[in-house]
Amino acid sequence: AAGITLRYETVKAGLGATNCPGRFEHIEPKLSKLNSPLVLDIAHNPAAAKALAANWQREFGDRKANLIFGAVESKDIVGILDALLPIASQVHLVPVNSDRGIAPTDFEKQFPAEHPPVEVHENLKEAFKVATLAPTLVTGSAFLVGEAKALFTASDHRASAQ
After folding, report:
1. How many CB atoms lie under 10 A from the CB of residue 96?
2. Please, which residues bridge with residue 147 across strands?
3. pTM to 2 decimals?
4. Residue 52: in which H helix or E strand, if any?
């Protein structure tokens, strides 16, 4: 529409240099204070969760994730979990710091019969205290990813009124 012709190589280079915070974002081990990789991803719908699972498998192969998950109202939690549970060794459910956050005990009931071990935590910090040597993945809500990022970058996190 702008009358500009872009070559494939130009588009590929531009997209390759694009940084999308909260999308398969790696937090440096020295910042996370974990002994394993930490990945943050705002996979808050089934399609995003499927893409996240594929990216996880591409990067980590058969290594399972120490999954930290929280969600807000109106999300397809069953669809998201269907995509993520196959890559999880254990699941840590946490509340999301939002007025629309769902209590972890409410969506714990939505797990399929066969699933990895599940533990409910009072907050995100508590979930990180029990993180194992497995790579850790924080996902399910943009609010949760924002809170996790604030924990490891010494920035302020404020709950959203949304």
Report:
1. 26
2. none
3. 0.83
4. helix 46-60
